[in-house]
Amino acid sequence: MATTRAQAPAAAPRRWAALFFIALAQLMIVLDATVVNIALPSLQRDLGISDGDRQWIITAYTLAFGSLLLGGRIADRAGRRRTFLVGALGFAGASALGGAATGFELLLVARALQGAFAALLGPSALSLLTVTFTRAEDRAKAFGVWGAISAAGGAVGLLAGGALTDYLDWRWCLYVNIPLALVAAVGATALVAESHRTGKARLDLPGVLLVTTGLVAVVYGTSRAESDGWDSPRTIGLLAAGAVLLAVFALVERRTAGPLLPPHVVADRTRGGAYLTVGIAVIGMFGAFLFMTYYLQAVKGYSPIRTGVAFLPMVTTVLVSAAGLTTRLLPRVPPRALIVPGMLIVACGMLWMLTLEPGTPYARGVLIAGLLLGFGSGLIMPTALNYATHDIDPNAAGVASACVNTAQQIGGSIGTALLNTIATTATADYLASHGATPAIARQAAVEGFGTASAWAAGIIVVGALIVAVLMNTSRPDIRPAAEEAADPETLVAH
Questions:
Q1: In 65-167, which ranges are continuous DSSP H helix?
Q2: 493 pLDDT band (50/70/90 cuts)?
Q3: I need a surface site. Which of 172, 281, 335, 462 has the fewest CB within 10 A?
Q4: Is the pLDDT of residue 200 over 60?
Q5: Residue 451 region, left (φ>0) first, then alpha (ψ -120 to 50), else beta?
Q6: How far apart are CA 144 and CA 259, in angstroms?
Protein backbone atom coordinates (compact mmCIF):
# COMPACT_ATOMS: atom_id res chain seq x y z
CA MET A 1 0.00 0.00 0.00
CA ALA A 2 1.45 3.36 -0.97
CA THR A 3 0.29 6.89 -0.44
CA THR A 4 -0.15 9.26 -3.31
CA ARG A 5 -1.10 12.88 -3.82
CA ALA A 6 -4.54 13.52 -5.31
CA GLN A 7 -3.83 16.27 -7.78
CA ALA A 8 -0.79 15.04 -9.67
CA PRO A 9 -1.11 16.37 -13.24
CA ALA A 10 -0.41 12.96 -14.72
CA ALA A 11 -3.62 11.67 -13.13
CA ALA A 12 -5.84 14.08 -15.09
CA PRO A 13 -6.77 11.65 -17.89
CA ARG A 14 -7.71 9.02 -15.30
CA ARG A 15 -9.84 11.52 -13.40
CA TRP A 16 -11.93 12.31 -16.45
CA ALA A 17 -12.30 8.64 -17.30
CA ALA A 18 -13.30 7.98 -13.69
CA LEU A 19 -15.97 10.68 -13.98
CA PHE A 20 -17.78 8.60 -16.59
CA PHE A 21 -18.14 5.61 -14.26
CA ILE A 22 -18.96 7.64 -11.15
CA ALA A 23 -21.59 9.61 -13.07
CA LEU A 24 -23.02 6.38 -14.48
CA ALA A 25 -23.94 5.35 -10.95
CA GLN A 26 -25.69 8.68 -10.38
CA LEU A 27 -27.60 8.26 -13.64
CA MET A 28 -28.76 4.84 -12.47
CA ILE A 29 -30.07 6.25 -9.18
CA VAL A 30 -31.86 9.17 -10.84
CA LEU A 31 -33.30 6.95 -13.57
CA ASP A 32 -34.77 4.65 -10.96
CA ALA A 33 -36.78 7.53 -9.51
CA THR A 34 -38.98 7.67 -12.65
CA VAL A 35 -38.35 4.62 -14.81
CA VAL A 36 -40.40 2.38 -12.49
CA ASN A 37 -43.25 4.93 -12.36
CA ILE A 38 -43.93 4.43 -16.07
CA ALA A 39 -44.00 0.66 -15.56
CA LEU A 40 -46.41 0.77 -12.58
CA PRO A 41 -49.65 0.12 -14.53
CA SER A 42 -48.11 -2.86 -16.35
CA LEU A 43 -46.50 -4.47 -13.32
CA GLN A 44 -49.65 -3.89 -11.27
CA ARG A 45 -51.71 -5.87 -13.79
CA ASP A 46 -49.06 -8.57 -14.20
CA LEU A 47 -48.59 -9.22 -10.47
CA GLY A 48 -52.19 -8.58 -9.43
CA ILE A 49 -51.32 -5.69 -7.10
CA SER A 50 -54.27 -3.76 -5.67
CA ASP A 51 -54.63 0.00 -6.07
CA GLY A 52 -54.12 0.39 -2.32
CA ASP A 53 -50.82 -1.51 -2.37
CA ARG A 54 -49.50 0.06 -5.57
CA GLN A 55 -47.94 3.05 -3.81
CA TRP A 56 -45.69 0.77 -1.78
CA ILE A 57 -43.62 -0.03 -4.87
CA ILE A 58 -42.44 3.58 -4.74
CA THR A 59 -42.65 4.09 -0.99
CA ALA A 60 -40.48 1.05 -0.13
CA TYR A 61 -37.63 2.57 -2.13
CA THR A 62 -37.94 6.03 -0.58
CA LEU A 63 -38.27 4.69 2.97
CA ALA A 64 -35.07 2.67 2.63
CA PHE A 65 -33.40 5.73 1.16
CA GLY A 66 -34.06 7.41 4.54
CA SER A 67 -30.77 6.01 5.88
CA LEU A 68 -28.76 8.29 3.57
CA LEU A 69 -26.78 10.06 6.30
CA LEU A 70 -25.58 6.71 7.63
CA GLY A 71 -24.50 5.79 4.10
CA GLY A 72 -22.40 8.93 3.90
CA ARG A 73 -20.70 8.27 7.21
CA ILE A 74 -20.00 4.66 6.22
CA ALA A 75 -18.31 5.97 3.09
CA ASP A 76 -16.15 8.33 5.14
CA ARG A 77 -15.12 5.59 7.57
CA ALA A 78 -14.92 2.42 5.48
CA GLY A 79 -13.65 3.91 2.23
CA ARG A 80 -15.56 5.75 -0.45
CA ARG A 81 -14.57 3.50 -3.33
CA ARG A 82 -15.29 0.39 -1.26
CA THR A 83 -18.71 1.73 -0.29
CA PHE A 84 -19.35 2.73 -3.92
CA LEU A 85 -18.62 -0.83 -5.09
CA VAL A 86 -20.83 -2.41 -2.40
CA GLY A 87 -23.62 0.01 -3.29
CA ALA A 88 -23.34 -0.60 -7.05
CA LEU A 89 -23.18 -4.40 -6.84
CA GLY A 90 -25.92 -4.50 -4.22
CA PHE A 91 -28.13 -2.28 -6.37
CA ALA A 92 -27.57 -4.62 -9.32
CA GLY A 93 -28.51 -7.65 -7.23
CA ALA A 94 -31.64 -5.96 -5.85
CA SER A 95 -32.66 -4.95 -9.39
CA ALA A 96 -32.24 -8.54 -10.60
CA LEU A 97 -34.39 -9.74 -7.70
CA GLY A 98 -37.09 -7.19 -8.51
CA GLY A 99 -37.09 -8.00 -12.19
CA ALA A 100 -37.55 -11.70 -11.44
CA ALA A 101 -40.28 -11.09 -8.82
CA THR A 102 -43.36 -13.28 -9.18
CA GLY A 103 -45.42 -11.54 -6.52
CA PHE A 104 -45.97 -8.29 -4.66
CA GLU A 105 -44.03 -9.27 -1.53
CA LEU A 106 -40.81 -10.16 -3.36
CA LEU A 107 -40.96 -7.00 -5.46
CA LEU A 108 -41.45 -4.97 -2.28
CA VAL A 109 -38.36 -6.51 -0.69
CA ALA A 110 -36.35 -5.84 -3.85
CA ARG A 111 -37.39 -2.19 -3.95
CA ALA A 112 -36.45 -1.73 -0.29
CA LEU A 113 -33.04 -3.29 -0.98
CA GLN A 114 -32.59 -0.97 -3.96
CA GLY A 115 -33.20 2.00 -1.68
CA ALA A 116 -30.79 0.71 0.97
CA PHE A 117 -27.97 0.17 -1.51
CA ALA A 118 -28.72 3.52 -3.17
CA ALA A 119 -28.20 5.06 0.29
CA LEU A 120 -24.62 3.76 0.10
CA LEU A 121 -24.07 4.45 -3.59
CA GLY A 122 -25.32 8.04 -3.83
CA PRO A 123 -23.21 9.68 -1.09
CA SER A 124 -20.09 7.66 -1.90
CA ALA A 125 -20.31 8.63 -5.59
CA LEU A 126 -20.67 12.35 -4.88
CA SER A 127 -17.92 12.31 -2.25
CA LEU A 128 -15.60 10.55 -4.70
CA LEU A 129 -16.32 13.32 -7.18
CA THR A 130 -15.57 15.90 -4.49
CA VAL A 131 -12.13 14.52 -3.58
CA THR A 132 -11.20 13.64 -7.17
CA PHE A 133 -11.85 17.02 -8.84
CA THR A 134 -10.14 19.73 -6.87
CA ARG A 135 -9.26 22.62 -9.17
CA ALA A 136 -12.00 25.18 -9.67
CA GLU A 137 -12.14 24.74 -13.45
CA ASP A 138 -12.14 20.96 -13.25
CA ARG A 139 -14.80 20.96 -10.55
CA ALA A 140 -17.00 23.24 -12.64
CA LYS A 141 -16.88 20.84 -15.58
CA ALA A 142 -17.32 17.71 -13.45
CA PHE A 143 -20.22 19.13 -11.48
CA GLY A 144 -21.73 20.44 -14.70
CA VAL A 145 -21.94 16.85 -15.90
CA TRP A 146 -23.19 15.68 -12.50
CA GLY A 147 -25.82 18.42 -12.29
CA ALA A 148 -27.03 17.76 -15.83
CA ILE A 149 -27.52 14.09 -14.97
CA SER A 150 -29.35 14.95 -11.76
CA ALA A 151 -31.64 17.43 -13.53
CA ALA A 152 -32.28 15.47 -16.72
CA GLY A 153 -32.09 11.91 -15.44
CA GLY A 154 -35.73 11.85 -14.36
CA ALA A 155 -36.92 12.78 -17.83
CA VAL A 156 -34.55 10.24 -19.37
CA GLY A 157 -36.09 7.69 -17.02
CA LEU A 158 -39.54 8.47 -18.41
CA LEU A 159 -38.26 7.91 -21.95
CA ALA A 160 -36.41 4.72 -21.02
CA GLY A 161 -39.35 3.42 -19.00
CA GLY A 162 -41.75 4.06 -21.86
CA ALA A 163 -39.53 2.35 -24.41
CA LEU A 164 -38.77 -0.66 -22.21
CA THR A 165 -42.40 -1.11 -21.18
CA ASP A 166 -43.76 -0.70 -24.72
CA TYR A 167 -41.19 -2.79 -26.61
CA LEU A 168 -39.98 -5.33 -24.04
CA ASP A 169 -41.54 -5.79 -20.61
CA TRP A 170 -41.88 -3.86 -17.35
CA ARG A 171 -39.26 -6.16 -15.81
CA TRP A 172 -36.60 -4.54 -17.99
CA CYS A 173 -37.17 -1.28 -16.13
CA LEU A 174 -35.39 -3.07 -13.28
CA TYR A 175 -33.05 -5.28 -15.28
CA VAL A 176 -31.59 -2.22 -17.05
CA ASN A 177 -29.78 -1.33 -13.82
CA ILE A 178 -27.68 -4.51 -13.89
CA PRO A 179 -25.34 -3.65 -16.80
CA LEU A 180 -25.12 -0.02 -15.67
CA ALA A 181 -24.11 -1.03 -12.15
CA LEU A 182 -21.59 -3.62 -13.33
CA VAL A 183 -19.92 -1.20 -15.75
CA ALA A 184 -19.75 1.47 -13.02
CA ALA A 185 -18.22 -1.02 -10.56
CA VAL A 186 -15.60 -2.30 -13.00
CA GLY A 187 -14.62 1.23 -14.05
CA ALA A 188 -14.38 2.46 -10.47
CA THR A 189 -12.21 -0.51 -9.51
CA ALA A 190 -9.77 0.26 -12.30
CA LEU A 191 -9.67 4.07 -12.21
CA VAL A 192 -10.74 5.42 -8.82
CA ALA A 193 -8.29 5.61 -5.93
CA GLU A 194 -9.56 4.64 -2.49
CA SER A 195 -10.08 7.50 -0.07
CA HIS A 196 -11.25 7.32 3.49
CA ARG A 197 -10.85 8.69 6.94
CA THR A 198 -7.87 7.13 8.68
CA GLY A 199 -9.37 7.48 12.19
CA LYS A 200 -11.44 4.80 13.87
CA ALA A 201 -13.85 6.95 15.84
CA ARG A 202 -16.85 5.30 17.50
CA LEU A 203 -19.99 5.25 15.37
CA ASP A 204 -22.68 7.60 16.66
CA LEU A 205 -25.38 4.95 17.22
CA PRO A 206 -27.91 7.28 18.94
CA GLY A 207 -27.55 9.69 16.02
CA VAL A 208 -28.01 6.87 13.52
CA LEU A 209 -31.19 5.69 15.24
CA LEU A 210 -32.67 9.17 15.62
CA VAL A 211 -32.01 10.45 12.10
CA THR A 212 -33.02 7.21 10.38
CA THR A 213 -36.32 6.88 12.25
CA GLY A 214 -36.96 10.62 11.89
CA LEU A 215 -36.43 10.63 8.13
CA VAL A 216 -38.45 7.43 7.70
CA ALA A 217 -41.32 8.99 9.66
CA VAL A 218 -41.27 12.12 7.48
CA VAL A 219 -41.09 10.20 4.20
CA TYR A 220 -43.75 7.71 5.27
CA GLY A 221 -45.96 10.50 6.59
CA THR A 222 -45.85 12.37 3.29
CA SER A 223 -46.57 9.16 1.37
CA ARG A 224 -49.61 8.51 3.55
CA ALA A 225 -50.80 12.09 3.04
CA GLU A 226 -51.60 11.29 -0.60
CA SER A 227 -54.12 8.60 0.40
CA ASP A 228 -55.19 9.61 3.93
CA GLY A 229 -55.07 13.40 3.58
CA TRP A 230 -52.81 15.94 5.24
CA ASP A 231 -55.24 16.41 8.13
CA SER A 232 -55.56 12.72 9.02
CA PRO A 233 -54.34 11.70 12.52
CA ARG A 234 -51.89 9.20 11.02
CA THR A 235 -50.27 11.76 8.73
CA ILE A 236 -50.06 14.43 11.42
CA GLY A 237 -48.70 11.94 13.94
CA LEU A 238 -46.00 10.65 11.60
CA LEU A 239 -44.88 14.13 10.53
CA ALA A 240 -44.88 15.37 14.13
CA ALA A 241 -42.91 12.34 15.29
CA GLY A 242 -40.40 12.84 12.47
CA ALA A 243 -39.97 16.51 13.36
CA VAL A 244 -39.42 15.70 17.05
CA LEU A 245 -36.93 12.93 16.30
CA LEU A 246 -34.94 15.17 13.93
CA ALA A 247 -34.95 17.99 16.50
CA VAL A 248 -33.62 15.61 19.16
CA PHE A 249 -31.04 14.40 16.62
CA ALA A 250 -29.84 17.98 16.14
CA LEU A 251 -29.43 18.41 19.92
CA VAL A 252 -27.59 15.10 20.27
CA GLU A 253 -25.20 15.95 17.44
CA ARG A 254 -24.21 19.20 19.18
CA ARG A 255 -23.19 17.31 22.31
CA THR A 256 -21.61 14.07 21.10
CA ALA A 257 -17.86 13.76 20.59
CA GLY A 258 -18.08 11.94 17.24
CA PRO A 259 -21.33 13.09 15.59
CA LEU A 260 -22.88 11.31 12.63
CA LEU A 261 -23.57 14.75 11.13
CA PRO A 262 -21.13 17.38 12.44
CA PRO A 263 -23.18 20.57 12.95
CA HIS A 264 -20.73 22.68 10.95
CA VAL A 265 -21.60 20.71 7.81
CA VAL A 266 -25.09 22.20 7.59
CA ALA A 267 -24.48 25.39 9.61
CA ASP A 268 -22.34 26.90 6.87
CA ARG A 269 -24.53 29.38 4.97
CA THR A 270 -23.25 28.37 1.55
CA ARG A 271 -23.63 24.63 2.10
CA GLY A 272 -26.97 25.11 3.87
CA GLY A 273 -28.18 27.21 0.96
CA ALA A 274 -27.07 24.49 -1.46
CA TYR A 275 -29.04 21.82 0.42
CA LEU A 276 -32.10 24.08 0.52
CA THR A 277 -31.73 24.75 -3.20
CA VAL A 278 -31.68 21.06 -4.08
CA GLY A 279 -34.66 20.30 -1.83
CA ILE A 280 -36.79 23.07 -3.32
CA ALA A 281 -35.66 22.58 -6.93
CA VAL A 282 -36.76 18.95 -7.00
CA ILE A 283 -40.27 20.09 -6.02
CA GLY A 284 -40.44 21.85 -9.37
CA MET A 285 -38.78 19.05 -11.32
CA PHE A 286 -40.76 16.20 -9.74
CA GLY A 287 -43.96 18.21 -10.03
CA ALA A 288 -43.26 18.91 -13.70
CA PHE A 289 -42.52 15.24 -14.49
CA LEU A 290 -45.66 14.15 -12.66
CA PHE A 291 -48.08 16.66 -14.19
CA MET A 292 -46.64 16.61 -17.72
CA THR A 293 -46.72 12.81 -17.75
CA TYR A 294 -50.35 12.69 -16.63
CA TYR A 295 -51.30 15.53 -18.98
CA LEU A 296 -49.71 13.91 -22.01
CA GLN A 297 -51.04 10.41 -21.32
CA ALA A 298 -54.39 10.94 -19.60
CA VAL A 299 -55.47 14.15 -21.35
CA LYS A 300 -53.68 14.09 -24.71
CA GLY A 301 -53.71 10.30 -25.11
CA TYR A 302 -49.96 9.86 -25.69
CA SER A 303 -48.42 6.39 -25.38
CA PRO A 304 -45.61 5.86 -22.80
CA ILE A 305 -42.90 5.98 -25.47
CA ARG A 306 -44.37 9.09 -27.12
CA THR A 307 -44.53 10.73 -23.69
CA GLY A 308 -40.86 9.97 -23.15
CA VAL A 309 -39.94 11.45 -26.54
CA ALA A 310 -41.89 14.59 -25.65
CA PHE A 311 -39.43 15.18 -22.79
CA LEU A 312 -36.35 15.04 -25.05
CA PRO A 313 -36.24 18.82 -25.74
CA MET A 314 -36.17 19.44 -22.00
CA VAL A 315 -33.33 16.96 -21.56
CA THR A 316 -31.39 18.61 -24.36
CA THR A 317 -31.91 22.05 -22.83
CA VAL A 318 -30.63 20.82 -19.46
CA LEU A 319 -27.47 19.53 -21.11
CA VAL A 320 -26.90 22.74 -23.04
CA SER A 321 -27.54 24.92 -20.00
CA ALA A 322 -25.45 22.85 -17.58
CA ALA A 323 -22.54 21.91 -19.81
CA GLY A 324 -22.49 24.88 -22.15
CA LEU A 325 -23.22 27.79 -19.80
CA THR A 326 -23.01 26.86 -16.13
CA THR A 327 -19.62 25.14 -16.36
CA ARG A 328 -18.17 28.32 -17.88
CA LEU A 329 -19.68 30.68 -15.33
CA LEU A 330 -19.36 28.53 -12.20
CA PRO A 331 -15.68 29.33 -11.52
CA ARG A 332 -16.25 33.04 -12.13
CA VAL A 333 -19.48 34.17 -10.43
CA PRO A 334 -21.05 33.79 -6.98
CA PRO A 335 -23.35 30.77 -6.64
CA ARG A 336 -26.52 32.79 -6.14
CA ALA A 337 -25.88 34.57 -9.46
CA LEU A 338 -26.67 31.24 -11.13
CA ILE A 339 -29.06 29.60 -8.67
CA VAL A 340 -31.50 32.46 -8.16
CA PRO A 341 -32.11 33.16 -11.88
CA GLY A 342 -32.34 29.41 -12.46
CA MET A 343 -35.03 29.04 -9.81
CA LEU A 344 -36.99 31.97 -11.23
CA ILE A 345 -36.83 30.44 -14.71
CA VAL A 346 -38.06 27.11 -13.34
CA ALA A 347 -40.91 28.97 -11.62
CA CYS A 348 -41.82 30.51 -15.00
CA GLY A 349 -41.89 27.01 -16.48
CA MET A 350 -44.30 25.87 -13.78
CA LEU A 351 -46.48 28.95 -14.34
CA TRP A 352 -46.60 28.19 -18.08
CA MET A 353 -48.54 25.06 -17.11
CA LEU A 354 -51.43 27.42 -16.36
CA THR A 355 -51.77 28.04 -20.11
CA LEU A 356 -52.45 24.37 -20.87
CA GLU A 357 -55.87 23.28 -22.07
CA PRO A 358 -56.94 19.83 -23.30
CA GLY A 359 -56.51 21.00 -26.89
CA THR A 360 -53.30 23.01 -26.50
CA PRO A 361 -50.75 21.94 -29.16
CA TYR A 362 -47.53 20.41 -27.85
CA ALA A 363 -45.37 23.20 -29.31
CA ARG A 364 -47.33 25.94 -27.49
CA GLY A 365 -47.71 24.09 -24.21
CA VAL A 366 -45.51 21.30 -22.90
CA LEU A 367 -42.59 22.18 -25.16
CA ILE A 368 -42.25 25.75 -23.84
CA ALA A 369 -42.72 24.67 -20.24
CA GLY A 370 -40.09 21.95 -20.70
CA LEU A 371 -37.57 24.32 -22.26
CA LEU A 372 -37.92 26.77 -19.36
CA LEU A 373 -37.65 24.00 -16.78
CA GLY A 374 -34.65 22.49 -18.51
CA PHE A 375 -32.75 25.74 -18.85
CA GLY A 376 -33.39 26.73 -15.24
CA SER A 377 -32.48 23.31 -13.88
CA GLY A 378 -29.22 23.38 -15.82
CA LEU A 379 -28.26 26.54 -13.94
CA ILE A 380 -29.37 25.27 -10.54
CA MET A 381 -28.19 21.71 -10.10
CA PRO A 382 -24.48 21.88 -11.06
CA THR A 383 -24.04 24.98 -8.90
CA ALA A 384 -25.91 23.61 -5.88
CA LEU A 385 -24.19 20.22 -6.03
CA ASN A 386 -20.78 21.87 -6.35
CA TYR A 387 -21.25 24.13 -3.35
CA ALA A 388 -22.89 21.38 -1.27
CA THR A 389 -19.37 20.25 -0.40
CA HIS A 390 -18.00 23.79 -0.31
CA ASP A 391 -14.99 24.23 1.98
CA ILE A 392 -15.63 20.84 3.60
CA ASP A 393 -13.07 18.76 5.49
CA PRO A 394 -12.38 15.73 3.24
CA ASN A 395 -13.08 13.50 6.25
CA ALA A 396 -16.70 14.71 6.15
CA ALA A 397 -17.13 14.63 2.35
CA GLY A 398 -19.32 11.54 2.52
CA VAL A 399 -21.78 12.89 5.06
CA ALA A 400 -21.89 16.28 3.27
CA SER A 401 -22.72 14.44 0.07
CA ALA A 402 -25.37 12.44 1.91
CA CYS A 403 -27.03 15.69 2.96
CA VAL A 404 -27.53 16.53 -0.72
CA ASN A 405 -29.25 13.22 -1.39
CA THR A 406 -31.33 13.59 1.77
CA ALA A 407 -32.48 17.06 0.68
CA GLN A 408 -33.36 15.68 -2.74
CA GLN A 409 -35.24 12.71 -1.31
CA ILE A 410 -37.19 14.67 1.31
CA GLY A 411 -37.94 17.50 -1.12
CA GLY A 412 -39.15 15.05 -3.73
CA SER A 413 -41.31 13.11 -1.28
CA ILE A 414 -42.92 16.14 0.33
CA GLY A 415 -43.27 18.00 -2.96
CA THR A 416 -44.87 15.11 -4.81
CA ALA A 417 -47.33 14.37 -2.00
CA LEU A 418 -48.22 18.04 -1.45
CA LEU A 419 -48.63 18.92 -5.12
CA ASN A 420 -50.55 15.75 -5.89
CA THR A 421 -52.96 16.52 -3.04
CA ILE A 422 -53.45 20.08 -4.31
CA ALA A 423 -54.03 18.82 -7.86
CA THR A 424 -56.55 16.12 -6.91
CA THR A 425 -58.46 18.52 -4.63
CA ALA A 426 -58.69 21.16 -7.38
CA THR A 427 -59.80 18.49 -9.86
CA ALA A 428 -62.50 17.19 -7.50
CA ASP A 429 -63.77 20.73 -6.85
CA TYR A 430 -64.01 21.41 -10.60
CA LEU A 431 -65.92 18.17 -11.21
CA ALA A 432 -68.29 18.92 -8.34
CA SER A 433 -69.26 22.24 -9.87
CA HIS A 434 -69.27 21.29 -13.59
CA GLY A 435 -70.46 17.70 -13.84
CA ALA A 436 -68.64 14.53 -14.92
CA THR A 437 -68.61 14.09 -18.70
CA PRO A 438 -65.38 12.81 -20.33
CA ALA A 439 -64.61 16.27 -21.73
CA ILE A 440 -65.18 17.93 -18.37
CA ALA A 441 -63.06 15.26 -16.67
CA ARG A 442 -60.12 16.15 -18.94
CA GLN A 443 -60.61 19.85 -18.27
CA ALA A 444 -60.83 19.14 -14.53
CA ALA A 445 -57.51 17.29 -14.63
CA VAL A 446 -55.88 20.24 -16.41
CA GLU A 447 -57.31 22.63 -13.81
CA GLY A 448 -55.79 20.48 -11.07
CA PHE A 449 -52.36 20.41 -12.75
CA GLY A 450 -52.42 24.18 -13.23
CA THR A 451 -53.38 24.89 -9.63
CA ALA A 452 -50.64 22.65 -8.26
CA SER A 453 -48.08 24.10 -10.68
CA ALA A 454 -48.92 27.61 -9.48
CA TRP A 455 -48.28 26.49 -5.89
CA ALA A 456 -44.98 24.92 -6.97
CA ALA A 457 -43.96 28.16 -8.67
CA GLY A 458 -44.74 30.10 -5.49
CA ILE A 459 -42.66 27.72 -3.37
CA ILE A 460 -39.73 28.01 -5.77
CA VAL A 461 -39.90 31.83 -5.84
CA VAL A 462 -39.86 31.95 -2.03
CA GLY A 463 -36.92 29.54 -2.10
CA ALA A 464 -35.09 31.79 -4.55
CA LEU A 465 -35.53 34.77 -2.22
CA ILE A 466 -34.20 32.79 0.75
CA VAL A 467 -31.22 31.53 -1.22
CA ALA A 468 -30.46 35.07 -2.43
CA VAL A 469 -30.05 36.13 1.20
CA LEU A 470 -28.59 32.93 2.63
CA MET A 471 -25.87 32.08 0.11
CA ASN A 472 -23.64 35.06 0.76
CA THR A 473 -20.49 33.68 -0.86
CA SER A 474 -19.19 36.68 -2.76
CA ARG A 475 -16.86 34.86 -5.12
CA PRO A 476 -16.12 31.25 -6.09
CA ASP A 477 -13.89 29.53 -3.57
CA ILE A 478 -14.15 25.85 -4.33
CA ARG A 479 -10.53 24.91 -3.81
CA PRO A 480 -10.28 24.04 -0.10
CA ALA A 481 -11.53 20.46 0.01
CA ALA A 482 -9.27 19.67 -2.86
CA GLU A 483 -5.98 20.69 -1.44
CA GLU A 484 -6.75 19.05 1.89
CA ALA A 485 -7.72 15.94 -0.04
CA ALA A 486 -4.25 15.92 -1.55
CA ASP A 487 -2.83 15.32 1.94
CA PRO A 488 -1.27 11.84 1.90
CA GLU A 489 -2.92 11.18 5.27
CA THR A 490 -6.32 11.46 3.62
CA LEU A 491 -6.01 9.49 0.36
CA VAL A 492 -4.84 5.90 0.19
CA ALA A 493 -4.31 4.38 -3.24
CA HIS A 494 -4.17 0.64 -3.59
A1: 68-78, 80-99, 104-132, 136-167
A2: very low
A3: 462
A4: no
A5: alpha
A6: 31
